[in-house]
Amino acid sequence: xxxxxxxxAKGLSDRAVAWIFIxxxxxxxxxxNIYPLIYAISMSFTNFYANKLGREIxxxxxxxxxxxxxxxxxxxxxxxxxxFMFWTLLLQAIIGLSLALLLNKKFKGxxxxxxxxxxxxMLSPAVVGVFWTYLYNPQVGLxxxxxxxxxxxxxxxxxxxxxxxxxxxxxxxxxxxTPFTMLICLAxxxxxxxxxxxxxxxxxxxxxxxxxxxxxxxxxxxxxxxxLFRGIENxxxxxMVVELTSGGPGSATELASIQLKREAFEKWKxxxxxxxxxILFVTIFGFGxxxxxxxxxxxxx
Amino acid sequence: MRNKIAIxxxxxxxxxxxxxAVKSESITLGWAAWDPANALVELSKDFTAQTGIEVNFEFVxxxxxxxxxxNELNNKGKTFDLLIGDSQxxxxxxxxxxxxxxxxxxxxxxxxxxxxxxxxxYAYSTWPKGSENYYALPAMGDALAxxxxxxxxxxxxxxxxxxxxxxxxxxxxxNWDQLYDMCTFFQGREIDGQVRYGAAINTERGSEGITMGxxxxxxxxxxQYENPSKPYDMEGYFNAPNVVEALExxxxxxxxxxxxxxxxxxxxxxxxxxxxxxxxFQMNWYAFWPGxxxxxxxxxVTGFFANPSQxxxxxxxxxxxxxxxxxxxxxxxALQYIKWFAQPDxxxxxxxxxxxxxxxxxxxxxxxxxxxxxxxxxxxxxxxxKDFWQxxxxxxxxxxxxxxxxxxxxxxxxxxxxxxxKIIEEWVEVFEADGKL
Lengths: 301, 437
Known about the structure:
The complex is a heterodimer.
Chain A: H1 2-10, H2 14-43, H3 63-69, H4 72-103, H5 110-118, H6 125-135, H7 142-150, H8 165-190, H9 194-202, H10 207-235, H11 239-245, H12 256-265, H13 270-300
Chain B: H1 2-24, E1 26-32, H2 35-51, E2 54-60, H3 62-74, E3 82-86, H4 90-95, H5 103-109, H6 118-124, E4 137-140, E5 144-149, H7 150-153, H8 156-166, H9 176-186, E6 189-191, E7 194-200, H10 209-220, H11 241-257, H12 267-275, E8 279-285, H13 289-295, E9 302-306, E10 315-316, E11 320-324, H14 331-341, H15 344-353, H16 360-363, H17 375-382, E12 385-386, H18 394-409, H19 416-433
Parallel strand pairs in B: 1-2, 1-3, 7-8, 10-12
Antiparallel strand pairs in B: 3-11, 4-11, 5-8, 5-9, 6-7
């Protein structure tokens, strides 16, 4: 019997063996990824409420989509999310790259400093959210104290003010995730062979020219990759902001994912929120695809 | 040797079976994690002593309470046999079949709802409202009230300064205008070398906080959610001029009386602000007053009063009834607990331990008013309470209220009328989807 199986297995082509190995994973992926996605899409055309189980589920066609896309409040949340992403990515790119350039120099305590800088990234976002509410406290908060130490703005409330709250979440996210872009940029910098700089020096290229023509092009694919990860993460940012502001004041920091959670798991508008989720999915999927294409082009250059 | 093994095996089997026997005689009760929950743990020890049924508890912090429990109910979870669910859940609990209807059980066991305060039966037990369908036993009476620094009020120099300015004595405010005068009097004032502020009021955005604060003002201004003779007709009621005025007043309170950074605050933040000596007043639930009262030390003396009136006397309802979860496998044990809990002597002990009994024997006893400094206020409040919508769709109704009120009061966006109009607009949508309009 045993021999028979071995004999049979020996007769299988490489391709067949590959399929045998990959099938369990594929099935699992279908079951936990693709099936829920298709299910959510089909839900999005109904008026289903997951908390009203006895209720008849009606097919409503594109009504949910029309409602979402026509709603001013949804566009406001999209704008809030877009501006959050824009500023966090911009700041993390600039600060992350600058830190990486500094740490790329050889000096004493370099390793220790890198470890220290990377620390915020290792914390739980929920914890970060909670302790920054203390740092932002207008009466005893360290953040307000430090800002007022340099220039006395008087009493200000980062979380309670609609103009400052969006910046409050940008600052915390930047504080927490700049180390991530820094690490990846650092990996990029370390991969640049030294002879390129030596050759440039022979050609009498100055420091700025070396940076523009060697460092930046070499590190750019790494930076873009880091920003892709950060972009996807921040598009679905939830925990840190909920702990920090609960989306407030009013809805000044209510990101799309926070609103989605409220529609889906507090109001239980399952059909409606499925449509919302599909729209968000298509948006990030579309952006992601375009981004990867651009990134590959840059890499090829 | 063989014998030894046999003995060992049989003793293990016995041990396992006996732990299982103990396990089957236990129930799990879910509630919010707050002071009264500790009192209930203490009280329930008597139940276990009498019946041998263990009571396990799972207490969830308030900000996540509704999320956690409603998820559990919607998923037909069996975690809880008993649930002390918030008053607004009763509509959903009854309509979606989460709670066991208790009428037959009450009849069989001779438990009469007439023994419990009418306002609490109406608020915590019945659905549809005012009917005689009971889905809970009133467990914890509660309303929103105020605590103040009586020791500061009693200082002659402060009183005379206040009187010179406003023409009347510092004391329990008779209406919201007086409350505002007193709050602004303390705002930014230095007392004993520390800067103090007026009042810690509810402003929380995430769950129900700011709604539970702003309605305290709205009810006092005579707000009605809907046309009394035409249900769900809200235009001209919920956005009437008196409600607009109340909302504007609450914003004024937030801007002129709250301590800095008090923009996302509810129960715990208010308690903290008061405890650290920042504020002269705090708004909070009666449930916390035993704890606040006990903490008075270093010269701090706390006084308590019911929500001040303005155009009418009214207070925001808190509190909960205890229900049997329909998905539980141990409904009979859970019902035993309710039967035990409904007894007058258990109810008396419940009050003594720091819970708020709703039983008429307790509330009507001659010693009740003198049993705590806040007892009279509690009695007064429970006669004038009003609650948010208790519809099955109450969360859908709560979220727009939270958003637009917070947007107006804290964020300063738009006008009070606009905020109320937006809320009505979304409420209409909810009622339409629910087939009520």
